[in-house]
Amino acid sequence: MLKLHLRIAFRKFWKDSVNSIVNLIGLTVGLTSVLLIFSYTVYEFSYDKSYSNAKNIYRVILSQNHQESVYVPLSLGPLLTKEYPEVETYTNCQKGKQQFTIGSETYEIPVMLADSNFFKVFNLKFKYGDPRTALENLNSIVIDESTANIYFPHKNPVGELLVDRSGTQPVVMQITGVINDIPKNTHFSINGITSALNEDPVMSLDWTGFAGRVEYLKFKDAKSIVSFKSKLPGLYLQTKAPKYTEIQLQPVQSIHLYTTAADDQFVNGKISNVIILNTVGLLILIIACINYVNLFTASSLKKVLEVGIRKVLGATRSTLIYQFIRESTLFFIIVIPFVLMFAYFLWPLFMAKLGHTDAVPSVLSLRNIAFLIFISLMTGLISGIYPALFISNLKPVLLIKNFEKGGFINLNIRKLLLVLQFVMSSFLIISTLFVLKQLRLISNIDLGFNKENLVILPIQRYDRGEGFLFDLKRNNNIKQLAVADFNLGDYYSNTPKIKDRRDTTISFDFAIINADVDIVKTLGFKLKEGRLFSKSFSLDNADVDSIAKDLKSKGKVEQLNSLLNSRPLIITDKVAAVLKIKKPLGQVINLNDNVRGTIVGIVTDIKGLSVHSESPLTILKPKNNHKYYGYMYIRMSGKNTLQTINFIKDKWKQYFPGSTFSADFADERLQNLYDVEYRQAGLFTIISFFAIGIACSGLFSLVSLILQQRRKEIGVRRILGSSIFGIVRLISSDFMKLIFISILVSVPLSWLVINKWLEGFAYRTPESWWIFAIGGCMISVIALATVSIQSIFTASAKPVSNMKG
């Protein structure tokens, strides 16, 4: 029986090949999109499930004044483990990159700096070594299997020594274990774990001034978590936590998609992106299904005589309904092999567009194939219901009598479906245009400095730094040099949260940049008032912190205060506005000993990190003791760029032999901050045009049906003198009204969704009316072209041919 049904389905496919091919393409695109997006969604929700106790592991989030941070006091974990029996253990961690010398070569490895409890919380599988003792001793390191195979092939590396050259002095470290490779779908992407000293359990908890680490808690069971949360108010009371201070527990399995803290140390996904992508996939599928219903109904003109005769011969309505639904479902099943083939080839490209360039699970897993079969059967069933119920309900006499006229076809339903298709297509086009406009704003936003021809070079060893700087300055293609302690596009090294002394319930996020006197010139900060740092001013070149420390130890309070008040500071105009300083130049600010001094200059607001969040209140302090710094900024002339980079690299090898040279261009680094958005914009653009293509094929079928019904009318009009243009205008006007309605409906929907998406950016593009106009015009032109081509073809035919039908 199935063989017979398939034979009939294939026969009808070839008999009406044009509609069938259009249907096949539309459904293949729709179902392929759904399969790819479903597989991506499954992968995104699979994060942090590789360790057996994942359900009982939580990351601690510190919320202060309604702002979240992943960094908490080091003493919090020991206190919670000691005072609360629900907490089984804890671990403190910190992401880092370390340079190791192995033999004569130096390599940079991403690591996690952790305490000895790390493997008690994350029970990663060991290939060599003992997880209970692997991190007990300082200067121990556990590496993953891939790293071991690269640097110690065909041997057990436990006991081997590495030289860590990340700090000012080389440190010998011992390999104490090898773990299986950490799965890519884990929120921390590292190749090694190094040991750090555990915090003293008796240290008191300080909620305001602390050295923070990322902390994970492991609970005994689900009931323990509920019990612990109920005791948190007592913790705040016991430790005298400031107002609006609380800790939140984030399940480790939700970190990848649900993290909202701006200072997370790892790059994670966003649940909003997953929702948006799934919504787009659903819209594509709906458009494809509507298209199928339209084309299926259009082809019913050729089936009604058969249906009428079968009803006369005694076929029941249920039999006819079954026939139509069977044909619909079989067509969807026929599409499945094409979907699997395209999904297989597109999967790596699709994931690369979404930022997953590493190895990911196959799209052709049993779960994904089962989902595809299920969704195909369900959509086939749903798509076939309307044509089946409509045609099987018609009376045999009406079917046979109106076979030639096609007057029984309900065009209102098809027009409603067409409007729905173009609402979705217009929504996708307008939304994509807004995304592109926002990305253009990001690319052109005033950052407060010049990102072009600027090289960032991490400086890890400072014992020969002065000579390195001196040699670089001798190159004519290098215009300026400066060393600072902040990493452009990544983090500020000193970001204190300081209370407003006028209102202690308000606190501000500051970013303190310690840099040498040439930092303003090198980065191209825009000076609005005052002066730059200069070597001609003694305090600009003095090591104020060391002098202040000496005065404090000697009890010279008056001299200490005078020194700190005289320290030169350059602030941004945003700092002056927020602190309400009317005439900043010469004013002394004293927020704490770290933010204290005389304002000598004002620059425009500096946006040194992602524009997803507001720029902090930035203050520049001169500090010429290079041992405290970590990044060199090199302003090049823009000429002979490659030769200049090679010159810098050669000098690096001369002064720092064995250390990895890893320079970045500032513009490329800042561009990479929005890599996900750029990839998604490209993906949405492709999907939007697919949606329009599918919708236009549905429009094409509806125009075909109407032209079939109006062929005689068109023939009469041509005989009576109507021009081809007049007939095209007559046919097109009805459809353009539908397209106009679609655009009107899609505009508020697009506005709502885009506003929600833009909430993730601190700096947003305005909702310009012309974006809606451009999106509407694009849809209108494409739809008009689709209608006009067929209308011209029919109107151009000889009137006699049209009169014959």
Question: Would you mind describing this structure in some detail?
Answer:
There is one protein chain. 36% of the residues are buried. Strands 15, 16, 17, 18, 19, 20 and 21 form a seven-stranded mixed β-sheet that branches. Strands 4-5-10-7-9-8 form a six-stranded mixed barrel. Strands 14-22-13-23 form a four-stranded antiparallel β-sheet. α14 packs antiparallel against α23 (675-709) and α18 (544-553) runs antiparallel to α19 (557-566). A hairpin with a 2-residue loop joins β19 and β20 (595-603). The protein has 805 residues and is α+β, with helices and mostly antiparallel strands.
**Mean pLDDT figure:** 80
Low-confidence stretches: 403-408
Give me the count of strands. 23
Structural class: alpha+beta
Major sheet, described briefly?
7 strands, mixed
Net shape: elongated
Q: Bin the helical content.
A: 40-55%
Strand content: 15-25%
Task: State the distance separating the first and last CA atoms.
Answer: 38 Å
Tell me the number of helical segments per DSSP (H or I, 4 or more residues long): 27
Whole-number radius of gyration?
34 Å
Fold blueprint:
Layout: H1 2-15, H2 17-44, E1 57-64, E2 67-69, E3 71-73, H3 76-83, E4 87-102, E5 105-114, H4 118-121, E6 126-129, E7 140-144, H5 145-151, E8 161-164, E9 171-179, E10 192-195, E11 212-219, H6 222-230, H7 232-238, E12 245-251, H8 255-258, H9 271-298, H10 304-312, H11 317-353, H12 366-392, H13 396-401, H14 411-444, E13 454-458, H15 465-473, E14 478-484, E15 497-500, E16 503-515, H16 519-523, E17 527-530, H17 538-541, H18 544-553, H19 557-566, E18 568-572, H20 573-578, E19 588-592, E20 595-603, E21 617-622, E22 631-636, H21 641-655, E23 664-665, H22 666-672, H23 675-709, H24 711-719, H25 724-758, H26 769-796, H27 799-804
Parallel strand pairs: 5-10, 7-9, 16-21, 18-20
Antiparallel strand pairs: 1-2, 1-11, 1-12, 3-11, 4-5, 4-8, 4-11, 6-9, 7-10, 8-9, 13-22, 13-23, 14-22, 15-16, 17-20, 18-21, 19-20
Helix pairs in contact: 1-2, 2-9, 2-11, 2-12, 2-23, 9-12, 9-14, 9-23, 11-12, 14-23, 14-25, 14-26, 15-21, 18-19, 23-24, 23-26, 25-26
